[in-house]
Amino acid sequence: MDMESGVNAIRYVGIAEAADKVSNADRILVIGCSGGGKSTLAQKIARRFKLTYISIDRDVLWLPGWVQRDKLEQHRLIVELAAGERWIMDGTNTSTFDIRVPRSDLVIWVRMPRWLCVWGILSRWITNRGRTRPEVAPGCPEKMEWQFLRFVWTWEKVYGPRVAAGLAAHAIGKPVLVLKSRREMRDLLDLIGAGA
């Protein structure tokens, strides 16, 4: 399948349709750049609909001290977690889209402007400096490094096309909601009754 036909096969949905899907979904995948608000969104939806919240950063990728888990172990954990019955999974890693996207009832792509993502990571660093956020593995206190800032600033250019290609390959017929502003995110949360 060529890229053009794959992109056309993705079923992009609006906020109202996505809100209806969220309320009836058993498995939701939330993807996007760091700092865009995907973890906060996923946790609010998890609480509202009593879905198991899975964070790729906390549950798969990192061990204490910001040590990355072995790739084979990461893969095993992804397969195990994706096999669950009711979850919302927060994390983008396109190399596991073949496992996670087909199991999802809905994909939410939080695609905020890069300046907003940089603001998001800077503000969470200031707020949580020295502490571990709930969506990160224990023993991984909040920190800020220049390479991470660069990663976030260039994410859309480098990883946006990979996400689009991964969705084109694995989300055919699946509803995909793209959220491009905080207002759109608030509108979704308001529609599903998880705005607070």
From TrEMBL:
InterPro entries per the UniProt record, alphabetical: Cytidylate_Kinase-2 (IPR052922), P-loop_NTPase (IPR027417)
At the top level, the lineage of the source is Bacteria
Which positions carry the signal peptide feature in this UniProt record?
none
Return the PANTHER family for the record: MODULATES DNA TOPOLOGY (PTHR37816:SF3), YALI0E33011P (PTHR37816)
Specify the protein name: Topology modulation protein
Give the organism the record lists. Answer: Neorhizobium galegae bv. orientalis str. HAMBI 540
